[in-house]
Amino acid sequence: MPTYKYAARNAQGKLIDGSVESPSQDALVKMLRSQGLLVTSISEERGRGKSATGKRPRFSLKVVRVTLDDLIIFSRQLATMVSAGLPLIESLDVLGEQLENPHLRGVVTDVRREVEGGSTFTAALEKHPRVFSQLYVSMVRAGEASGMLDGIMNQLASYLEKTGSIRRKVKSAMVYPAVVSLIAITIVIFILIKVIPTFESIYRSFDAQLPLPTQIIVIISQTLRKFWFVWIIGLVAIGYGLTRYVKTPRGRWQFDTVKLNMPIFGDLFRKVAVAKFTRTLGTLVRSGVNILNALEIVAKTAGNVVVESAVNKTKNSIQQGESIAGPLAQTGVFPPMVTRMIDVGEKTGALEEMLNKISEFYEDQVDASVSALTSMLEPIMIAFMGVIVGGIVIAMYLPVFNMVNVVAK
Hints:
CATH class of the largest domain: Mainly Alpha
Structural class: mainly alpha
Mean pLDDT: 79
Radius of gyration: 30 Å
Shape: elongated
CATH architecture of the largest domain: Up-down Bundle
Number of strands: 3
CATH superfamily of the largest domain: Type II secretion system (T2SS), domain F
Helix content: over 70%
Number of domains: 2
Number of helices: 16
């Protein structure tokens, strides 16, 4: 019967290693799992720090470009392998070879080497903060401590899928007006540069006083043609200045406040913020993360400083003995329905379930809002283009109408 060397972690995260005879690796894994141990590696007297090929992998990370979809695939596959009884190191070794993203493949290879060298899976992930967020690391830490890493990885994958779905819906709502606006601007610039000069030369030959709207359009056309570089520099300077201002604490606060209160899109952004808050907090609570740590993570991953400030105030109030719902209601950021449902969840001991129900409700609301916005924005943008282009055309034909009236008299 072969002898296997193994390394595993108990429920407290302590590393345990040893040698034992077993008919197969699968039998040994089942035995260790029945003892509440999370297997990290099994080998037949192989050298420490080497892979199945006997070679130590070498990896130097320079650029990290890992998408949300890449993390979802990684989390799902790792959960499946661990659930099937495959040791963690062997699972990471397989993923390090088959992942399509070369950057994530290199990161996983480095994580596997750290774990094989005696580090915890959580500590290995923490060395790559640009790939694995604080939320991701915290949930993995809870999974390692409870011996339910496979379940936690499945929860992570589901959470990331929901987050990606909401992000795509918001982008789809923003793309249409952005594209139509770009087309409208392009058409207006073309008219001002190519069409208006023709009318300008005709009216100049008449040597007559032009109507005020026509004069304004002609002046804009002349300025755009003669000082186009000034327009470009000005637009770039304005864009750069706004970007720099938004990066300041005051600018970011004002920008995020405007986002939540702006017409048409403000309601959508608020629903997205509520859905993300409840989904993230519910996932962390279900994973066994302490409520204060969970709120701290939720605040940092909110993506909106107004929401982040509200969550931090709630966390500070909880530390002083208050409930979650009360401080959330006082911030004025979250709708009354949300705070009341959270209050009910706290009182009945079903906070996790209530948070999931709220997130599902608001995710459905985001779907409905995106559909409504798309239907509403189409006629609005068409009317906007008609007003701009039509206004220019009317302004340029006003002198012709005036001349017709003079001749008629």
